[in-house]
Each structure stands twice: as structure tokens, then as C-alpha cells.
């Protein structure tokens, strides 16, 4: 479900692009230091974005080093030194990946997911011990979402609300002390989660239709087997675009209230261009040459 939040590369300045990559690599290295090498393959752009956003709200600017990495050992580059924001984001990444692997095993009997989850047994204990409230919130909301999906909930907003609440909890990092900033982060995180959930559901329409998987968009509008899936997509696209744009607008308004002292160029790009172009790509099939690819 993750991987939708990233900058629009062609509109980034070179130094902003290098900084974005430095945070992505910094999160990867932090996951390796905090846990083990295997969990680094669960790295995604959405959590790297959270790391940048939370770092941008800290009183001091992050440190940068020049060194190689596991994916490119001979090519030295800028990497953000492990900090409070990246440690938090790394632990949240472990929770989300671990619960996703367990869900795949329970629902689809995916042996590969069961085997992959073994690498997360010790990391998830550490993450749970360090952030017990976040662990419990994510676990409870994911269980409620799983139950709702098994009941074939036909209301997009109801399903999206539970995933939105997960991102709301994640965005409210415990080391952020200012109550107003936390309130804004919660609202931003809520709409980020809502946007990701609905966009992913639209992105999976053809696959879910073919495999007869749960998808709230297929149920709400509803989809009949005799209808061509392309006709169905055309029929629902405008409504989905409207509700996605609503959440993007709320994210942008929340971001403007935060007024972060650092990384405005990168964050402006993601909030005002990256997410909107990614949405256009999924809804209208635009090419993705301006987006980064994960390791």
C-alpha cells in the first residue's frame, strides 16, 4: 500500500534532490543499525518522507556524512546521520512491515511472507518496547480494518478512516512537544493515510476485480460482473478524484500551518506536486519517469 508519497523529480533543485536521497539512505542505514540488514528491504518512500517532515520541525539542522551504502558500496554519497526522527521512523517502518507480513500469511497463506516475518521477530520486540503506544494503536486499527474488509464493507470512507487513523497516530511523533504542532501533524497524517488508502484501492481495481479481492470502490459504486472493468473505472474516476483531492487539500493546508524551518523546497515539492502528479499517474495513466524508484 505504500510508495505513493515522493517528490516530483524534474522540479527539484539538484541540492534538494541530493538531500531527499540523503534522508532515504539515512533511514535505510538507521534501520540497519537499529535492527538488521534484512529489514532494510522494507524501506519505502512514504516513511522517508515522514523522516524529512519530522526532521524539518526540529530546532537544529541534521548532520550529513559522505559514505557508501549496501546498495552502492563503491559510490559515496550524502547520507543523513541517524537522528531522533529517523530512529522513530525506522521503528514505525518495522511495525508496518511486520503486521503486513502477518496479514499476508493469515489471509493468503503466503509462505514467503511467513518466512520473511522471521527477520522481524527481534526488531518488532524492540520497536514495541520503545514505542508501546504506537504499536498498540497500529495493531488495533489494523485488526479493525481487517475485520471490516472481511465483512465486505461497501463504504470507502469507513474503510479509509481506519487506515487514516493509523497514519494519524504515526505522524504524531512522541518527541514533538508542542501541542499545536502535534494537532496539526495528526490532521495531516489522517488525510495522508486516507489519500494513500483510497488511491491504492483505485490502483488495484483491475487486479482485485480479476482475483475477486476485497476493494471498497468495487462495492460502493457497485461493480457488476457483466460490466467491463474499463467502463467501471471511467464511471467512478471523477468521484474518486474528487475525494482524493479533498484529502490532498487538507494535507496542504495542514502543512502550511506547520511552517517548517528546514527543507521547504523538498516538502513544497512533495505536497504541491509529487502527490498530485502521483495521483494523476494512477488515475489517468501518466508516465512515471519523473518519480524515483525504491531500492
UniProtKB/TrEMBL annotation:
The lineage of its organism: Bacteria, Bacillati, Bacillota, Clostridia, Eubacteriales. This is DUF5685 family protein. It comes from Irregularibacter muris. Pfam families: DUF5685. InterPro entries: DUF5685 (IPR043740).
